[in-house]
Design a protein that fits this description.
Layout (H helix, E strand, L loop, with lengths): L2 H16 L2 H16 L37 H15 L3 E3 L2 E3 L31 H4 L2 H8 L2 H13 L2 H17 L11 H17 L11 H13 L1 H5 L1 H14 L4
Antiparallel strand pairs: 1-2
Helix pairs in contact: 3-6, 6-7, 6-8, 8-9, 8-11, 9-11
Length: 255
């Protein structure tokens, strides 16, 4: 055992010694839930049917008020559209790293280390803290928050240029296709799922009047919402877990 491994073991031993009985109990429960949910994993080799809203189901009602776009100051509008044009060209800065692959991003690639995180493995059998295995996971998680798509959706809302909305639609479909439920590193954190749900809600609001809106898969949204609710990170950081869940329950399914 090398010095680094000894240091890690010592840290875990100290951390364990400081846990309360309550924390130990919910951590054990979380491990049991993660093991049980392994049977629900979906893979790209065994995809599920894409269930979308059917006529008569609850419709999206959280629309932005009429005239909202006209209230945006010209300087802010210009800044949003300039940033969105960069994204249309594939250019974006992610945590200080300039990327040029954002037209069709690899959702598992870390440009810092050049490594690609496992995409098919069950999420909770991936050590996302191992840079040798996943690369810098924060780089991977950052684009899977889909916040860059809220910018493109805002650009469509302000300009009605369909190029912005179509790239949003293409990337949403790409993310759902390449990140089936509980497969890959993008499902390991409840906080990341919660932030992604917020992005999806705002994308839906901003593109509400886009005539080509494809609709969200109810399977994807309900499973994301359910998993964000039970995940350990929604208890450790309620602001990142429960509010996005409540927001999404009211806004996303059947929309």
């Amino acid at each position: 055992m090398n010095a680094l491994q000894q240091s890690r073991l010592a840290w875990y031993a100290r951390r364990l010694g400081r846990m309360s009985a309550g924390e130990l109990a919910w951590r054990c429960r979380d491990k049991i839930v993660q093991a049980a949910w392994s049977t629900r994993q979906v893979t790209t080799e065994r995809p599920e049917a894409d269930e979308s809203a059917r006529p008569g189901q609850r419709q999206f009602t959280a629309r932005l008020p009429a005239g909202t776009a006209s209230l945006v100051p010209e300087a802010a509008r210009s800044a949003v559209l300039a940033a969105a044009r960069r994204l249309l060209a594939g250019e974006w800065e992610v945590l200080g790293v300039a990327r040029t692959d954002m037209i069709s991003p690899d959702w598992f690639f870390d440009p810092v280390t050049g490594r690609r995180a496992p995409a098919e493995r069950y999420a909770f059998r991936i050590n996302h803290r191992s840079e040798e295995l996943t690369g810098n996971v924060k780089q991977i998680w950052e684009i899977s928050r889909l916040q860059h798509l809220t910018l493109l959706a805002t650009a469509w809302f302000l300009s009605h240029d369909h190029a912005y909305a179509r790239l949003v639609s293409e990337q949403l479909r790409s993310w759902w296709r390449e990140n089936p439920f509980l497969s890959g590193v993008n499902w390991t954190s409840g906080i990341e799922i919660g932030i992604r749900l917020i992005s999806m809600t705002w994308i839906r609001r901003l593109l509400n009047e886009w005539p080509e809106w494809p609709g969200y898969s109810t399977t994807v949204t309900w499973r994301s919402i359910r998993f964000a609710t039970i995940s350990d990170t929604s208890r450790r950081s309620p602001a990142a877990g429960r509010p996005p869940t409540i927001m999404s329950l009211r806004r996303l399914p059947a929309s």
